[in-house]
Amino acid sequence: MVGGLVETGVIDTLARSATDAVAGKLWPATMLMLWASAGLSAIVDNIPYVATMSPIVSELVNAEGGIGKAQVLWWALAIGADLGGNATAVGASANVVVLGIAERAGHRISFWGFTKYGLIVTVISVAMAVPYLWLRFFVF
């Protein structure tokens, strides 16, 4: 146990594999992080997803020198995980709460009914985040 966390080696292995796969291709890695985070966060709650991915992003950022353009990977993780949670009813705790409140008020919203609109909102909002990340990568 290190720092209160149990080390299984799986995350470390994934982090090293991701670092090797990226191999200096930071912009494609940023887009992969953004869209994969959005997709996975639609089915896994944001907090455990980000907690799991943080060591991987940290390894990627450190492999790129830890400063400058590599910091965009943190933004991609945060934005993707946040916006991806809007895609499904289980993507974020707030969605579950709202569905419960709506049902108590007599307006049942099914999982697929929520997802039909949530996916559209998510794809549009994640696509709108791409220019922001581009600016953070190429300008700032």
Description of the molecule:
It is a multi-pass membrane protein. Keywords: Membrane, Transmembrane, Transmembrane helix, Transport. It is found in: Membrane. This is Citrate transporter-like domain-containing protein. Its main location: membrane. The model has no long low-confidence stretch (mean pLDDT 87). The termini are far apart. The protein has one domain. Helix 1 packs across helix 3, helix 2 runs antiparallel to helix 6 and helix 4 runs antiparallel to helix 6. The chain is 71% helix and 0% strand. By secondary structure, the protein is an all-alpha fold.
Question: What does the secondary structure layout of this molecule look like, with pairings?
Answer:
Layout (H helix, E strand, L loop, with lengths): L9 H13 L3 H16 L4 H18 L8 H13 L8 H12 L6 H28 L2
Helix pairs in contact: 1-3, 2-4, 2-6, 3-4, 4-6
